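Q: Structure for this?
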Amino acid sequence: MKRSCVFETRTLFTFENYDLAATLCSGQAFRWKLQSLGWESVVAGRWIRLNQTAKGIGAETALPQSDWRWLRHYLQLDLDFPSVLKSFPPDEHLTRASSACAGLRLLRQDPWECLASFILSSTKQIVQIQQIVELLCERFGEPVTISEGAERWFSFPSATRLAACTESELRACKMGFRAPYLSAAARMVAAREIDLEALKDLNVLQARAELIRIPGVGRKIADCVLLFGFGFQKAFPVDVWIMKALRQLYFPGRRVKQPRLIVFSEKYFGENAGYAQQYLFHYMRTQHSRPKRKRNRGNI
DNA sequence: GCCCAGGTGAAGC
DNA sequence: GCTTCACATGGG
Protein backbone atom coordinates (compact mmCIF):
# COMPACT_ATOMS: atom_id res chain seq x y z
CA MET A 1 0.00 0.00 0.00
CA LYS A 2 1.26 3.41 -0.77
CA ARG A 3 0.14 6.07 1.51
CA SER A 4 2.93 8.45 0.74
CA CYS A 5 1.71 11.96 1.19
CA VAL A 6 3.51 13.42 -1.79
CA PHE A 7 2.53 16.85 -2.98
CA GLU A 8 3.19 17.50 -6.63
CA THR A 9 2.12 20.09 -9.17
CA ARG A 10 2.49 17.63 -12.03
CA THR A 11 1.27 14.17 -12.80
CA LEU A 12 0.80 11.81 -15.72
CA PHE A 13 -2.27 9.72 -16.29
CA THR A 14 -1.24 6.74 -18.35
CA PHE A 15 -4.08 6.25 -20.74
CA GLU A 16 -4.67 5.03 -24.26
CA ASN A 17 -7.12 6.37 -26.72
CA TYR A 18 -8.25 9.58 -25.03
CA ASP A 19 -8.56 12.42 -27.52
CA LEU A 20 -8.07 15.43 -25.31
CA ALA A 21 -8.59 18.09 -27.98
CA ALA A 22 -11.79 16.52 -29.29
CA THR A 23 -13.12 16.03 -25.78
CA LEU A 24 -12.37 19.54 -24.55
CA CYS A 25 -13.73 21.18 -27.71
CA SER A 26 -16.81 19.07 -28.26
CA GLY A 27 -19.32 21.54 -26.90
CA GLN A 28 -19.77 20.02 -23.47
CA ALA A 29 -17.43 22.36 -21.58
CA PHE A 30 -16.85 25.98 -22.50
CA ARG A 31 -13.78 27.12 -20.59
CA TRP A 32 -10.88 25.28 -22.22
CA LYS A 33 -8.25 27.36 -24.01
CA LEU A 34 -5.36 26.04 -26.04
CA GLN A 35 -2.40 28.16 -24.92
CA SER A 36 1.24 27.83 -25.92
CA LEU A 37 1.95 25.25 -23.20
CA GLY A 38 -1.24 23.25 -23.36
CA TRP A 39 -4.95 23.22 -22.59
CA GLU A 40 -5.78 25.51 -19.70
CA SER A 41 -8.92 25.91 -17.64
CA VAL A 42 -10.25 25.93 -14.10
CA VAL A 43 -11.59 22.65 -12.74
CA ALA A 44 -12.99 22.27 -9.23
CA GLY A 45 -11.74 25.75 -8.42
CA ARG A 46 -8.15 24.96 -9.44
CA TRP A 47 -6.20 26.28 -12.39
CA ILE A 48 -5.08 23.36 -14.55
CA ARG A 49 -3.02 22.73 -17.67
CA LEU A 50 -3.38 19.51 -19.65
CA ASN A 51 -1.32 17.99 -22.44
CA GLN A 52 -1.79 15.00 -24.67
CA THR A 53 1.42 12.95 -24.56
CA ALA A 54 2.54 9.67 -26.05
CA LYS A 55 1.81 7.92 -22.77
CA GLY A 56 -1.44 9.60 -21.88
CA ILE A 57 -2.45 12.90 -20.34
CA GLY A 58 -0.03 15.17 -18.56
CA ALA A 59 -1.47 17.52 -15.94
CA GLU A 60 -0.07 20.52 -14.15
CA THR A 61 -1.59 22.61 -11.40
CA ALA A 62 -0.43 25.83 -9.78
CA LEU A 63 -0.66 24.49 -6.24
CA PRO A 64 0.77 21.12 -5.17
CA GLN A 65 -1.76 18.28 -5.03
CA SER A 66 -1.65 15.21 -2.82
CA ASP A 67 -4.63 13.63 -4.49
CA TRP A 68 -5.67 13.83 -8.14
CA ARG A 69 -9.02 12.10 -7.84
CA TRP A 70 -10.89 15.31 -8.61
CA LEU A 71 -9.22 15.40 -12.01
CA ARG A 72 -9.64 11.70 -12.73
CA HIS A 73 -13.29 12.21 -11.96
CA TYR A 74 -13.60 15.24 -14.22
CA LEU A 75 -11.92 13.40 -17.10
CA GLN A 76 -13.81 10.19 -16.27
CA LEU A 77 -10.68 8.10 -16.49
CA ASP A 78 -12.14 5.23 -14.49
CA LEU A 79 -15.15 4.65 -16.73
CA ASP A 80 -15.51 1.16 -18.16
CA PHE A 81 -15.48 2.45 -21.69
CA PRO A 82 -15.57 -0.85 -23.63
CA SER A 83 -18.84 -1.76 -21.97
CA VAL A 84 -20.30 1.58 -23.04
CA LEU A 85 -19.49 0.74 -26.65
CA LYS A 86 -20.90 -2.75 -26.22
CA SER A 87 -24.19 -1.33 -25.01
CA PHE A 88 -24.77 0.57 -28.28
CA PRO A 89 -27.28 -0.89 -30.72
CA PRO A 90 -25.43 -2.43 -33.64
CA ASP A 91 -25.88 -0.04 -36.51
CA GLU A 92 -23.60 1.29 -39.19
CA HIS A 93 -24.18 4.99 -38.48
CA LEU A 94 -23.28 4.73 -34.85
CA THR A 95 -20.30 2.54 -35.63
CA ARG A 96 -19.05 5.04 -38.15
CA ALA A 97 -19.65 7.97 -35.82
CA SER A 98 -17.90 6.38 -32.86
CA SER A 99 -14.95 5.12 -34.86
CA ALA A 100 -14.53 8.53 -36.47
CA CYS A 101 -13.39 9.84 -33.11
CA ALA A 102 -12.88 6.90 -30.78
CA GLY A 103 -11.01 8.98 -28.21
CA LEU A 104 -13.89 11.34 -27.56
CA ARG A 105 -15.09 11.15 -23.96
CA LEU A 106 -17.77 12.67 -21.77
CA LEU A 107 -16.55 14.89 -18.96
CA ARG A 108 -18.10 15.09 -15.50
CA GLN A 109 -18.51 18.74 -14.74
CA ASP A 110 -19.67 20.79 -11.81
CA PRO A 111 -23.49 20.76 -11.97
CA TRP A 112 -23.95 24.46 -11.29
CA GLU A 113 -21.39 25.54 -13.87
CA CYS A 114 -22.92 23.13 -16.33
CA LEU A 115 -26.46 24.34 -15.69
CA ALA A 116 -25.53 28.00 -15.95
CA SER A 117 -23.47 27.47 -19.10
CA PHE A 118 -26.19 25.58 -20.91
CA ILE A 119 -28.82 28.16 -19.97
CA LEU A 120 -26.57 30.52 -21.91
CA SER A 121 -26.27 28.13 -24.84
CA SER A 122 -29.67 28.46 -26.45
CA THR A 123 -29.41 29.47 -30.12
CA LYS A 124 -25.75 30.36 -29.67
CA GLN A 125 -22.74 28.92 -31.41
CA ILE A 126 -20.17 27.19 -29.23
CA VAL A 127 -17.62 29.98 -29.74
CA GLN A 128 -20.14 32.54 -28.58
CA ILE A 129 -21.07 30.52 -25.51
CA GLN A 130 -17.37 30.45 -24.66
CA GLN A 131 -17.18 34.24 -24.97
CA ILE A 132 -20.19 34.81 -22.72
CA VAL A 133 -18.93 32.38 -20.08
CA GLU A 134 -15.51 34.01 -20.13
CA LEU A 135 -16.99 37.46 -19.54
CA LEU A 136 -19.13 36.11 -16.73
CA CYS A 137 -16.11 34.55 -15.00
CA GLU A 138 -13.92 37.64 -15.42
CA ARG A 139 -16.54 39.89 -13.93
CA PHE A 140 -18.05 37.77 -11.20
CA GLY A 141 -15.64 34.90 -10.53
CA GLU A 142 -12.79 34.86 -8.04
CA PRO A 143 -9.17 34.96 -9.21
CA VAL A 144 -7.45 31.59 -8.89
CA THR A 145 -3.76 30.87 -8.38
CA ILE A 146 -1.98 30.22 -11.67
CA SER A 147 1.44 28.99 -12.70
CA GLU A 148 4.05 31.51 -13.68
CA GLY A 149 3.60 32.59 -17.25
CA ALA A 150 -0.06 31.66 -17.46
CA GLU A 151 -2.65 34.32 -18.12
CA ARG A 152 -5.09 35.18 -15.35
CA TRP A 153 -7.97 32.85 -14.61
CA PHE A 154 -11.12 33.09 -12.52
CA SER A 155 -13.39 30.57 -10.91
CA PHE A 156 -16.85 30.10 -12.30
CA PRO A 157 -19.09 32.44 -10.29
CA SER A 158 -21.24 30.79 -7.64
CA ALA A 159 -25.02 30.79 -7.78
CA THR A 160 -25.03 33.12 -4.79
CA ARG A 161 -22.79 35.60 -6.57
CA LEU A 162 -24.86 35.56 -9.76
CA ALA A 163 -28.08 35.81 -7.78
CA ALA A 164 -26.79 39.13 -6.50
CA CYS A 165 -26.20 40.50 -10.01
CA THR A 166 -28.67 42.84 -11.65
CA GLU A 167 -30.14 41.85 -14.96
CA SER A 168 -28.26 44.59 -16.74
CA GLU A 169 -24.96 43.41 -15.25
CA LEU A 170 -25.71 40.00 -16.73
CA ARG A 171 -26.85 41.43 -20.05
CA ALA A 172 -23.56 43.28 -20.24
CA CYS A 173 -21.95 39.86 -20.64
CA LYS A 174 -23.66 39.60 -24.05
CA MET A 175 -26.16 36.99 -23.02
CA GLY A 176 -29.20 38.94 -24.23
CA PHE A 177 -32.61 37.45 -23.45
CA ARG A 178 -30.98 34.64 -21.45
CA ALA A 179 -30.14 37.04 -18.60
CA PRO A 180 -33.43 36.71 -16.70
CA TYR A 181 -33.23 32.93 -17.06
CA LEU A 182 -29.73 32.78 -15.60
CA SER A 183 -30.76 35.16 -12.85
CA ALA A 184 -33.77 33.04 -11.92
CA ALA A 185 -31.69 29.86 -11.94
CA ALA A 186 -29.05 31.45 -9.72
CA ARG A 187 -31.67 32.61 -7.24
CA MET A 188 -33.40 29.24 -7.13
CA VAL A 189 -30.14 27.38 -6.57
CA ALA A 190 -28.81 29.89 -4.05
CA ALA A 191 -32.06 29.70 -2.09
CA ARG A 192 -32.03 25.87 -2.25
CA GLU A 193 -35.35 26.01 -3.97
CA ILE A 194 -33.60 23.64 -6.33
CA ASP A 195 -31.20 21.36 -4.50
CA LEU A 196 -28.63 20.45 -7.13
CA GLU A 197 -26.77 18.26 -4.67
CA ALA A 198 -29.84 16.10 -4.18
CA LEU A 199 -30.49 15.49 -7.87
CA LYS A 200 -27.86 12.79 -8.09
CA ASP A 201 -29.91 10.55 -5.83
CA LEU A 202 -33.03 10.80 -7.97
CA ASN A 203 -33.78 8.76 -11.05
CA VAL A 204 -33.31 10.41 -14.40
CA LEU A 205 -36.99 11.28 -14.85
CA GLN A 206 -37.28 12.90 -11.43
CA ALA A 207 -34.02 14.78 -11.85
CA ARG A 208 -35.09 16.06 -15.26
CA ALA A 209 -38.45 17.21 -13.89
CA GLU A 210 -36.65 19.16 -11.17
CA LEU A 211 -34.37 20.93 -13.65
CA ILE A 212 -37.23 21.82 -15.96
CA ARG A 213 -38.82 23.80 -13.12
CA ILE A 214 -36.18 26.43 -13.80
CA PRO A 215 -37.35 29.01 -16.33
CA GLY A 216 -35.32 28.84 -19.52
CA VAL A 217 -34.56 25.17 -18.93
CA GLY A 218 -36.43 22.78 -21.19
CA ARG A 219 -35.84 19.20 -22.13
CA LYS A 220 -32.66 19.82 -24.10
CA ILE A 221 -30.80 21.93 -21.56
CA ALA A 222 -31.97 19.66 -18.75
CA ASP A 223 -30.55 16.66 -20.57
CA CYS A 224 -27.20 18.39 -21.08
CA VAL A 225 -26.96 19.02 -17.35
CA LEU A 226 -28.08 15.47 -16.52
CA LEU A 227 -25.46 14.05 -18.85
CA PHE A 228 -22.45 16.36 -18.46
CA GLY A 229 -23.00 17.44 -14.85
CA PHE A 230 -24.47 14.37 -13.20
CA GLY A 231 -23.50 11.46 -15.40
CA PHE A 232 -27.00 10.22 -16.18
CA GLN A 233 -25.77 8.30 -19.20
CA LYS A 234 -29.27 7.75 -20.52
CA ALA A 235 -29.90 11.46 -21.02
CA PHE A 236 -29.96 12.33 -24.71
CA PRO A 237 -29.95 16.05 -25.50
CA VAL A 238 -31.59 16.76 -28.85
CA ASP A 239 -30.30 19.97 -30.38
CA VAL A 240 -30.34 21.10 -34.00
CA TRP A 241 -27.34 18.91 -34.90
CA ILE A 242 -28.75 15.77 -33.32
CA MET A 243 -32.07 16.45 -34.97
CA LYS A 244 -30.29 16.65 -38.30
CA ALA A 245 -28.38 13.45 -37.54
CA LEU A 246 -31.46 11.48 -36.56
CA ARG A 247 -33.42 12.65 -39.59
CA GLN A 248 -30.64 12.02 -42.08
CA LEU A 249 -29.40 8.74 -40.71
CA TYR A 250 -32.47 7.06 -39.24
CA PHE A 251 -35.44 8.63 -41.05
CA PRO A 252 -34.13 9.70 -44.46
CA GLY A 253 -36.66 11.33 -46.72
CA ARG A 254 -39.35 11.48 -44.07
CA ARG A 255 -40.78 14.45 -42.28
CA VAL A 256 -40.38 13.35 -38.68
CA LYS A 257 -41.08 15.86 -35.95
CA GLN A 258 -39.01 16.41 -32.86
CA PRO A 259 -41.26 14.65 -30.31
CA ARG A 260 -41.10 11.46 -32.36
CA LEU A 261 -37.34 11.72 -32.62
CA ILE A 262 -37.12 11.98 -28.85
CA VAL A 263 -39.31 8.93 -28.35
CA PHE A 264 -37.17 7.04 -30.85
CA SER A 265 -33.94 8.04 -29.14
CA GLU A 266 -35.26 6.99 -25.72
CA LYS A 267 -36.02 3.50 -26.94
CA TYR A 268 -33.29 2.95 -29.46
CA PHE A 269 -29.93 4.03 -28.03
CA GLY A 270 -30.09 2.23 -24.69
CA GLU A 271 -28.48 2.77 -21.32
CA ASN A 272 -25.61 4.89 -22.64
CA ALA A 273 -27.61 6.95 -25.09
CA GLY A 274 -25.78 10.07 -23.97
CA TYR A 275 -22.50 8.73 -25.26
CA ALA A 276 -24.07 7.78 -28.57
CA GLN A 277 -25.43 11.30 -28.75
CA GLN A 278 -21.98 12.83 -28.25
CA TYR A 279 -20.53 10.76 -31.08
CA LEU A 280 -23.35 11.67 -33.43
CA PHE A 281 -23.02 15.34 -32.48
CA HIS A 282 -19.28 15.36 -33.10
CA TYR A 283 -19.67 13.35 -36.29
CA MET A 284 -22.23 15.73 -37.75
CA ARG A 285 -20.20 18.78 -36.88
CA THR A 286 -16.91 17.51 -38.24
CA GLN A 287 -17.67 15.11 -41.11
CA HIS A 288 -21.05 16.19 -42.28
CA SER A 289 -20.76 19.89 -41.81
CA ARG A 290 -22.72 22.02 -44.16
CA PRO A 291 -20.94 22.41 -47.50
CA LYS A 292 -19.70 25.91 -48.13
CA ARG A 293 -22.01 27.94 -50.28
CA LYS A 294 -20.96 28.06 -53.88
CA ARG A 295 -19.61 31.44 -54.83
CA ASN A 296 -19.70 30.76 -58.51
CA ARG A 297 -23.35 30.91 -59.44
CA GLY A 298 -22.97 31.24 -63.18
CA ASN A 299 -21.51 27.80 -63.53
CA ILE A 300 -24.26 25.19 -63.65
C1' DG B 1 -28.70 42.17 -46.02
C1' DC B 2 -29.36 37.14 -45.25
C1' DC B 3 -29.38 32.77 -42.43
C1' DC B 4 -28.03 30.27 -38.54
C1' DA B 5 -26.51 29.02 -33.81
C1' DG B 6 -25.89 22.51 -28.41
C1' DG B 7 -33.83 26.49 -27.14
C1' DT B 8 -37.62 28.06 -24.56
C1' DG B 9 -42.07 29.99 -23.46
C1' DA B 10 -46.06 32.17 -24.90
C1' DA B 11 -49.41 33.31 -28.12
C1' DG B 12 -52.13 31.94 -31.95
C1' DC B 13 -55.00 28.65 -34.30
C1' DG C 1 -53.61 19.53 -29.21
C1' DC C 2 -50.54 21.54 -32.65
C1' DT C 3 -47.61 25.59 -35.13
C1' DT C 4 -45.50 30.07 -35.08
C1' DC C 5 -43.12 33.65 -33.16
C1' DA C 6 -40.08 36.73 -30.18
C1' DC C 7 -36.24 36.77 -27.62
C1' DA C 8 -30.17 39.24 -28.24
C1' DT C 9 -26.08 38.75 -30.42
C1' DG C 10 -22.42 37.62 -33.53
C1' DG C 11 -20.24 34.65 -37.27
C1' DG C 12 -20.11 33.30 -41.97
